[in-house]
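Example with several molecule types.
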Amino acid sequence: MAAPSELGGRIGRALGNAAARANIARAMYGLQKKRLLAFPDAAELERLRDAGEAIKRRAIARLPELLETLEASCARNGTQVHWAETAEDANRLVLDILQRHGARDLIKGKSMVSEEMGLNAALAAAGIEPIESDLGEFIIQIGGEGPSHIIAPAVHKSRFEVAALFREHFPDLPHGDEIESLCASARAILRRRFRAADAGLSGANFLVAETGTLVLVENEGNGRLSTTAPAVHIAVAGIEKVVERLADVPPLLRLLVRSATGQPITTYVNFISGPRKADEKDGPREVHLVLLDNGRSRLYADPELRESLRCIRCGACMNHCPVYVRLGGHAYGTVYPGPIGTVLEPARAGLGRLGELTEASTLCGACSEVCPVRIPLPSLIHRLRHDAVRTDGAGAAGSGARRRRLEALVWRAWAFVHARPAWYRLWTATATRLRALAPRRIAGWSDARATPRPATRSLHALARERGLDRE
Amino acid sequence: MPAPALTSPPEAVLFFGTCLIDLLYPQAGLAGIALIRRAGVRVIYPPGQSCCGQPAWNAGYRDEARRVAAQQIAALAGGLPVVVPSGSCAGMLRRHYPALFAGDPLERDAKALAARTFELTEFLVDVLHLRVDDLGPPLRVAVHTSCSARRELGAVDRIERLLDGLGGVEKVEQERKAECCGFGGTFAVKQPAISGAMVADKCDALAAAGAQVVVSQDCGCLMNIAGAFARRPDAPRCLHVAEFLWERSGGGAL
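Resulting structure tokens for the full complex:
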């Protein structure tokens, strides 16, 4: 047996971690139920998905133009827009802004794009200590881990594990392992940091082109504090976050929040429209928006893969994915896990490096069934699987990288037999006659299951015997 | 693409047996054929058929899938309705053939075939309006609906309606019924650890529901679920819904 791949090793470890599996499964099945309750009227949900899909489809179709409009609207509001082609570019831009202000302390609201950038490591290397203020992100930051879910980054941990982590890192703070007491501890630590921070960083859920508004949803208030208390606010966002009009936001918000957590609306919805005005008493003095490409243009250039740019990062696809539910996000080894990650990450990083991920899906369709903007995730995963073994070099980066000679030969032989009725009948006749010689074990299959055996007569033979093969 | 709009029985149908049923589960195929014939519809089993091409399609080998699919289009030529005793193979013919042959000289034939393809339970319910006199003893039965029948075909309710018509059958519901069993074609051998974890959970749920029998419209799922149950002491009987319906109606030897 061949040594497991890196992915295989991570999958084995994830499946072997009973505690994390139980935490993740309990949370995901809970989120599935909550989403269902949040959309009690199936017809209304489909109308809302129609609207959400149409809004994002329109926005992505006009992406270059809307981004220019956004830049102009932001400039009008006093928000400074920066363009980053790569994660490194984005990190440098953020670092430049911070250094210009002599900032040492950065308080962060939750941002998956900052995870994508590897911002925390880049800042630490430059001597700036970012601190995560979202509770889940705070937990994994002190635990030295990456997020295991895009909206619930510490979902793999139980409250007892969190309590143990807090006791280890903050021995002076009194706390038990009830959630309220853990939250109180985190609040005590973070409040000091909010006051001391020189700058705040956040993501954005939607960027409104016509008004230059940054929309940010959150439940803990840390997003609002990160974007209003410090003198400088830096937002980082992918270029696909732009929508045309302010009126596009409410339907998307309803879809996003209900799909993600089953809430009717998040506790906080922030509409950020620029820095503090001359007659205003609070708010940041500077607002910066760093717009990140990081491979999104490549997705945009591909008419099929472009559909993935509609994603509003609700996480419903992973909440409902039977593979994700059993593995959690860390097994994927990518920033974005689950079905959407299985499309975005290999398409951007190349199929040579991440193509194996496309095989870790049954294509069951649970993800596309719930996707609020109707991204055809199984079709896109399937498309990348094809790209990984195709020979014409077309398709996503790393096209053909996973084609193996032996496997390709097996499929050629399979096609030869199944495209020729006489050969096929010879094969089934042989397999049924020699059924006693059928292998007892089939690599992979027999690990968990008994191996099926050919029948004594094939259906072809039985149908012929009954005269059914004649018209 | 929805099921074809045909509401009264045709004179004859073409039966597409699928490679899995052909080689491993011919009784399921014979039962499907027998149910249709008993309703007075002639069944033709075109001898040129083999496999819908799904294994290669699933694995990303589209050229190979197309070569095999082209042979099925030839074998299933003519205008007769095609009945497929499998959600995933019917899904392949109806949903994926048009995409597979987009821009190909066979595109029109592929679309025409897609438009006259029925999954077996769709055909039994929508076209034959099948009623089965249940002659069997009382039994607790769980339905496992394949993801293809559920999501690609939207045919999840047909198998339920067929079972609801059986007086002696008490349907039991397993937890997370809509969740994939972990078969996924090549997935089961390419990612055996995840697949094994999924099917173990599926078996747990079916056993906990107290099912004496598990029926499905897909032999792929059944091969997976029955294969995993074969190593457990709490195994219910797993069989294709066509075989089950035939048995319950006292259909006799096939």
